[in-house]
Amino acid sequence: MAEVTARPTASQPAATELPKARSGRVPDLPILEKRNWLIHLYYVRKDYDACKITIKEQLQETQGMCEYAVYVQALIFRLEGKIHESLELFQTCAILRPRCADNLKQVARSLFLLGKHKAAVEVYSDAAQHNQKDWEIFHNLGVCYMQLKYFNKAKDQLNNALQLNRHDLTYIMLGKIYLMEGDRDKAIEVYKKAVEFSPENTELLTTLGLLYLELEIYQKAFEYLGNALTYDPCNYKAILAAGSMMQTHGDFDVALSKYRIVACAVPESPPLWNNIAMCFFGKKKYVAAISCLKRANYLAPFDWKILYNLGLVHLTMHQYASAFHFISAAVHLQPKLAELYMLLAVALTNLEDAENARLAYQKASALDTCNPLISLNYAILLYNQGDKKGAVLQYYEMKRKVHALKESTLEFDPEMVDIAQKLGTALQLGEVAIWAKPGKDSKSKPRGTASSTQPLGSNQALGQAMSSAAGYAKTMSQAIGSSTQLAKVPSLPLEPKPNEPTAEELTIKRQEQIQPIEQAKES
Amino acid sequence: MAAAASSAPSSGSAGDGTRATSKWLDAHYDPVANLHTFSSCVTLADLHGDGDYKLVVGNFGSTGHEMKLKVYQGTSLLSENTLPDLPTSVVSFLMEQHEPRMPALAVASGPYIYVYKNLRPYFKFTLPPMEPNPMEKVVWEQAKEDKVDLLSMKEMLEAIRENAEMPLSVQSLRFLTLDPPEMDSFVNQHKSQPIKRQTVMTCMATLKKNRVDEDAISCLVIGTENMEILILDPEAFTILSKVTIPSVPTFLDVAGQFDVEYRLTVACRNGSIYILRRDSKRPKYCIELSAQAVGLVRIQKNIIVACSDETLRGYTQKGKKLWGVTLPATPITLGIMDEKFQSFQAVLVALANLEVHIYRDKNLVNVIQVPDIVTSISFGHYGREDNTLIMTTKGGGLIIKILKRTSTFHKGDTAVGVPVAQSIKLSVPKKTKLYVDQTLRERESGVAMHQVFQTDLSRIRLMAARAYVRALECSMTPVSESLQEPLKLNAVVQGMGPTFKLCLNLQNMSENRAVANLLICFVYDENRYSIERPFFKAPMLIPGLNYPLATFVECLGDQGISDIIKVFVLSEGNSRPLLTAHISMPVSEGLAAA
User: Pick from A9, A37, A234: which is nearest to B65 by CB?
Assistant: First the structure.
């Protein structure tokens, strides 16, 4: 309220001063910097209204010569988004007090905000000549070069800044440049140094954790994310990342309780609702999963991962028509993912559109190189359609992929192994041995033999396996129970997306986990 | 949120305000005390040496122009002195050893320190003027002897301003802003005046001279706008020591004794904190905050700073960062809470969200809810009470709280508990009967639904394609297809009715060919509308320009019915239109209202 009443009397000091000045022979000129401290105090308290009034008074009294008042006015303008006005005022400051590095820094900053990075670099270099020991100038120069994509120069400048004085922000920028160059190891090195320097910076800890997550060094990732959460239990990035790791280990309840914190802090985050939904999915609360996914989809309608998961959940619910819509929307947004076409084919098969299903499988196997599930599912479709030759071809294709995968020491989903063996028998190929070779999956062996002894091998039996509603619940639970093993099967084809924002990464993980469930079901 | 949440375990129950403030007694609250001030201008002093501490406030007045030095005793105003200018800082200090020990008050304001003894003006100290630029001096000497004309004088001064390290005096600066006609009189008026440069004070603190006792003689330490720290002798007011620092000081903290060893911590406007020691000519350590300091206190050997980026940070006196916590809102001011009985020291942080947080190191130990934004805070002896918290608010209120003698604060590390948010249930909608029914239906007849949908989709695509082709064939689109006359038309209806203004914007899209001989024709239901000019000739269209063509439409019917008006753009001698636009007219509100 004081500000409002202050306005009419704003000119008072000037008015009272004039008569006094006349009584003396020569008018006393006011001291320019008299209220600088007050302006500064209001400014740091972010009481911008009071600050502006004081600035106005001060400028009136000194007839616009108070450099600091103009300077702060410009800073306030910039905060209000009036960058051009502020730039003009900074230039006035430069006239009132030339050769001042501070002023040049601010001019450069305004130019930077206007996107004139080249001009900003020039002004910063100028400022650096006036003040050679200011880390801020070097840091900002580095950031400008980064924006201009001169990464080497940017790194030099940022390292200069670090030599003058170490700041978290400089480390973050340096790490970012390495990431932009695709040099993850270097970036990790930088972030590690930064964490050493300021061990409580949750942003640094989270970034480092996410980097390790990308590199699949889960132990370290969890360590750093956990550290971040001890310092700031509400850090939503860290919670999302840690939660997704818990999900891969099947700790759905713990993950959900962590997500509740995020739901309060960032209720409109699409990846959050996606992950919550997949937790519910893991707990077999499908309706809750669908409503959460729909919320996620509402918040981010063009995110194909959410659509993918929606399709998946609807497939599980036997709502094939809906599933088809979500998956085809996802395909439109992400036309290069083989798994999507496979899901589409599964939906189409259930909608009795075998023609298109076959086309979708063709597209999927054309895009994919290493996911045996696609070939397996395709083989089953072909077999059911009576194209035994094509089925055998796909079966061998699957075998090839399995062999290729065996090198990466991964265990296969017993569900998948089981079905494949049944198919093998049905096709009268009788090569059970390929599954025995991995030798790690002790469970799959007895199963495999058991199934081969069963009098299967008929069209009918396979058809049953594909669509019998009763069987689903059971197979589902098994698949989820052993999701730790499953999670890794398809992880390879999904890797080439490192540029996604961190939170998105989680969704990928989540999908990976869900995917095999669906595949198992289909086959 | 976060900080409040973490306080929960420390206060024993949920960290809400009522529970937390119970450590304090509400002694006095006057929302209209008309006290507008900052922490630096509030001090508690035993002014009469009788153990009854008074509150001294350098008040700005509600408009910032009624400056008063107010002294409170208990809840009432004891005395009031008018101040000549805005007070920068108010401190109390002992000037001499006489009994009874009655501290003097020092009020820093502009370039002066006004010293009050026994609440009466006693002495006025003026900062020594700064050395003016010798070149500037020469210029004005010449002006005095009329040896130089105004323009060359201006040029010389400008050159000095550009190149000299030392800034010009106010007189020269003002001269440089003047227009040529005003210059003459200005120079005549001022030329006999010696040029001078005067600086002002920005902060002030006290430093014990040679003893640690509470009633020891203290020196005044002042920070000035020209980036200097001065230490003044309390008796003679001579400058004992002078240090230059790299930026303008804003907050000062002093520890030690002048004659033995002391340490000055100075927060500056460039966002750095400098630490100086006795005999150091330059700052010994520097802390770069990367944000502006809002307040600075020292607890034992640690420096605690609140920054404008909503953090509170602790540093050692050598400038090493110890910890940092995020504050829930912008900090407004800092105060130190020094409870002698339990030797409990903490920092009081007034926040913009109407709370005062008390931190012991990095742990939040107490939250006080206040009715207004606290702008100044001080803790100490008041009246005969030892632990009093005195706050003034933005609206001019005065709040006095007394710490209960039974209150204790947690001293140890408080383990960070589970955030409150974790126990809040997720808002997942319940499944409805409708949803279940739909799901069942889809499960039963999913295949049929899919097939019907696909058929309809194909059909709608076909229809759309047909309609598009037809529109192209009949030139019913607002963008013409013909290569000779590439035109664009859009229409806007203005007004509420019954008379509307119909504005057509016609544009020639071709690169370089003008289009002439165009006709515009309106087709409409004549029972409903009448158009001023239903048929007219368009001007020649220059490429790229927008031609607004307006006409008035009168709505005839009195039932609020609206209709479509069609606009055709025709070329002369051709019955097929080039463009067509359908304008759906709004309902005439003028009639509806009548």
Answer: A9
Q: Can you tell me the mean pLDDT for A390-414? A: 80
CA A255 vs. chain centroid, Å, equals: 18
- How many other C-beta atoms lie within 10 A of the C-beta of residue B67? 20
Higher pLDDT, A3 or A493: A3
The Cβ-side half-sphere exposure at B463, using a 13 Å CA radius, reads 6
* Candidates A9, A32, A256; nearest CB to B170: A32
pLDDT at A141 over 70: yes
Mean pLDDT of B385-392: 90
Residue B251 three-state SS: strand
- Choice among A259-263, B99-103, B125-129 with the minimum mean pLDDT: B99-103
> In terms of CA atoms, which chain B residue is nearest residue A103?
B270
Q: How many CB atoms lie within 10 A of CB B361?
A: 17
Q: Measured between alpha carbons, how far is A170 from A177 in angstroms, rounded to an integer?
A: 11
What pLDDT digit, counting tens, does each position of B148-188 carry?
Answer: 777 788 888 888 877 777 777 878 877 877 777 777 788 87
User: Which pair of tokens denotes residue B141?
Assistant: 């000497």
Whole-number pLDDT of residue B591: 54
For A188-209, what is each residue's pLDDT tens digit? Answer: 888 988 888 888 888 889 988 8
Q: What would you measure as the largest C-alpha separation in chain B, in angstroms? A: 115
C-alpha span between A327 and B468 (Å, rounded): 29
Burial of B213 (0-12, 13-18, 19+ CB in 10 A): exposed
User: Testing the interface with B: which of A44, A281, A291 to mutate, by most B Cβ within 10 A?
Assistant: A44
According to DSSP, the β-strands at B262-268 and B249-256 are antiparallel
Tokens of A157: 């400048």
Distance from the Cα of A485 to chain B's closest Cα (Å) equals 30
B499 phi and psi angles, rounded to 5 deg:
-95, 130
Determine the longest span between alpha carbons in chain A, in angstroms: 121
**CA angle B336-B337-B342, nearest 5°?**
145
Single out the residue of B291, B287, B292 nearest to residue B302, CA to CA: B287
Token digits of residue B426: 């997720």
A490 has a pLDDT exceeding 70: no
Burial of B78 (0-12, 13-18, 19+ CB in 10 A): middle
Q: How many Cβ pairs within 8 Å bridge chains A and B?
A: 171
Residue A182 contacts residue A474 (beta carbons within 8 Å): no
pLDDT value of residue B417: 59
CA distance linking residue B571 with residue B578, whole number of Å: 7
Backbone angles phi, psi at A308, to 5 degrees: -55, -50
Looking at residue B569, what DSSP letter applies? E
Confidence at B510, pLDDT banded by 50, 70, 90 = confident
The pair of three-digit structure tokens given for residue B125, joined into one six-digit string: 């100290």
- Distant-in-sequence, close-in-space partners of A398: CB < 8 Å, separation ≥ 6: A372, A375, A376, A379, A420
Question: How buried is residue B131: exposed, middle or buried, by Cβ count under 10 Å (0-12/13-18/19+)?
Answer: exposed
Question: Three-state SS for A152?
Answer: helix
- Residue B389's pLDDT is what? 92
How far lies B521's CA from each of B476, B538, B575, in Å? 14, 10, 12
Under an 8 A CB cutoff, do A64 and B177 touch? Answer: yes
**Peptide bond connecting B9 to the previous residue in cis, omega within 30 degrees of 0:** no
The model's confidence at residue B483, banded by pLDDT at 50, 70 and 90, is low
Tell whether the model's pLDDT for residue B386 goes beyond 80: yes
Count, in order, helices (H) and strands (E) of chain B.
8, 36
Does residue A354 surpass a pLDDT of 50?
yes
Chain B neighbors of A261, CB-CB under 8 A: 419, 421-422
Q: Locate B193 and state its tokens.
A: 């005046």
Rounded distance between C-alpha atoms, residue A487 and residue B577, angstroms: 64
| Three-class DSSP category at A189 | helix
